[in-house]
Amino acid sequence: MADKRDYYEVLGVDKSVSDDELKKAYRKAAKKYHPDLHPGDAEAEKNFKEVNEAYEVLSDKEKRARYDQFGHAGVDPNFGAGGGYGGGGFSGGFGDFGDLGDIFGSIFGGGFGGGQRRNPNAPRRGNDTAATVNLSFEEAAKGTKKTVKVTKIDTCKECGGSGAEKGTTAKTCPVCHGSGQVASTQRTPFGVMQTQRVCDHCKGSGKIIDKPCHTCAGKGRIRHTVEQTVEIPAGIDDGQIINVRGGGDAGANGGPAGDLRINVNVRPHPIFERNGFDVYCEIPITFTQAALGDEIIVPTLDGKVKFTIHEGTQPGDEFKLKGKGIQRLHYSGKGDQYVRIAVEVPKDLSKHQKEKLKEFDKVCEDKNYKKRKTFAEKIKDLF
Length: 383
Prior knowledge:
It contains 9 helices and 15 strands. The protein has 383 residues and is an alpha+beta fold. Among the domains are: 92 residues, HSP40/DNAj peptide-binding domain; 110 residues, Urease metallochaperone UreE, N-terminal domain (HSP40/DNAj peptide-binding domain). The strands form 6 sheets. A 4-stranded mixed sheet has the order 10-11-15-14. Strands 1-9-8 form a 3-stranded mixed sheet. Helix 2 runs antiparallel to helix 3. The relative contact order is 0.10. About 10% of the residues have low confidence.
């Protein structure tokens, strides 16, 4: 645990980073090392978990404050565990200096907290896992259920996590007595020095398994790919993350499972655009419809609705359909839909059509073109 990288370094930010900048850095790093982009790459998977772990701590105000003050020891009770001063104000003691903690602990009677080591059989939380879900515009707006494939570590059902073949049990290591560490002493000019190292007999696990489980090879946990149904809340947006508590890797020694963090990708829609919880679309109408007014059909997320446009509608005019937008995430109510009018100028006119348009233009007066009249007056005043 002492070789953990600094969480700010992992995400490539400094300690003064804002919440928004932190979120952007996390998304960038998560995409860089995402398992879907690096199948079978153990190093990328390791980096991805490291990124998730860093973000989990730094995105939580309380955890971040403890981390800023005490480092990893402030957010992981198993990190550099030692006697210290007991009250938590000097939680690490000399624990981060390896054998020095034991040496000073032997000289000064353990007052510097070096004598205790992490219990290999203590409950440990499982790692977070990640998946990506692709949604249509409508699915993101209205919510849905999706099945995602997740590669995760689960407790072995065959042995129940003990690592021992069914009908047998793991035994406490007779050498280290379950601590996973063995002490050795040596005489020095300063007196008798005591150091600790990993127990060779049990490889630091604190237990001996005579008959390992044939399914998990004695590890107590297995890695496999499962399908998990996820509830997608209405109003979710592209780039957001859904956190499924307990959906990650199983914990060790009875510890809680990690979380499943699902990255949301929303495909663009051919008609609709989104801004927050409001929806925008553009509807083309003819010159005649714009001039005379008409009843048009407007597509919405709830189906088609009729809307009457008034006489003299101009290109770029916009009207609002209240409550026809997207469901507000985790709140009641919906956004609105805004419809922009695009007046389509006819092309490829026949000779007859052109003549009719010229006839129409001759009978038009200045009052029919208020903008053109105003513009002409402005030019006249300028020149």
